[in-house]
Write a structure and sequence with these properties.
mainly alpha, 3-stranded antiparallel sheet, two-stranded antiparallel sheet, 36% helix
Length: 409
Amino acid sequence: MRTLLCSLSLGQPHDKITAVLVPIDDAFLPAILAYCESQQYNDDVRMVTSKLNAATGTLVQVPFDLAHWQRVAQEKSPNGLPKPHSDNPTQWLFNGHPKGFDHPLQVAVARLLGYRWPRQTGSSFLDCPALGPDGLEVHADADGIVPLASIAGEASAADRLRALLKDAYGEEWSAAKLKELLGEWDSLEDWLRDGFFAEHCQIFHQRPFVWHIWDGRKDGFHALANYHKLAAPNGEGRKTLEKLIYTYVGRWIERQQGEVKAGKEGADARLTAAQHLKAELEKILEGETPYDLFIRWKPLREQPIGWAPDINDGVRLNIRPWLQTSLAPVTKPKKGACILRVTPKINYGKDRGKEPHRSKEDFPWFWSWDEHSDDFMGGDALDGARWNDLHYSLKTKKQARERKRKAGA
């Protein structure tokens, strides 16, 4: 579009708004890359076309001085083209280690929650092999749930994160290094409670994979959860949510009940907030509307019943029930607040494109949804609009499954 960004291709499938230039001779690749990365290339293409979106054909209708750009390439990369590499944790090539890369604290939290990047799970790419253990695996939480306070016999999240960072940085680790990583934040505890999740949503494009669950009080219940554990297949994700509710939140409630009996200041409000959080999590577990999962491309008879997410459906759809939750009135929540520390900016409106023919019984939402009705069973005309924010009750989903069972009997 405005600026023609250039990178080496790994040979993977790509969107049509990207074009691949393939050298006639591989020996020309360094020179072509040097040219395409330069401002000169942008200027030359714009001399050919003034359109904002340069057509594919115009990308090679430019003058090219091979000898000149070979000299530039030699000066820029005397040892040849660099191997594929990324310091950015949003990229598949990233090696999953906090030290020396972008957003080290974010990477460290992800590792603490048991997340691993593709190369750490056996995936390899062109000139970019899979990676073995790096020693930080011992810090990974087994169930993917890490409360900020010490609960259920676990150390606090901040203490566990310090231990991971100490191993990651080795001899470089010090109080000064931690202060450098924290920037404007006074402590690791403050950053985990008030800064981590907002940063996480921003860095990972509003598709968080570590969720900060809270009851709305700074002195209340806080826990970080690995989304991949919450969305694990074969019912394991449901078990993880149950453990969050009945082990971690449950023990926090017991602690507050004890503090109420002891007359500790603020314990009543903390207990009320925690009990409300528990009730909201149980609603997600049950999955009754509006806490239901809705997957546009699955027929009504295959819509999830209760908390039964498919990780392949993506964060955008699986996080929706959590965004329907509320905080207890005693917390004085902001408008739009939910049991996630900040509300990710996710649009559930109509996606681009239209669906081809779909049966009304299986896909009623493609038949002229009125944009507000729950349990919508289809209108008169197929319009194929790709809406994502419909709600279907447990009764309706179960009835669809029963019709399918009887039809197949």
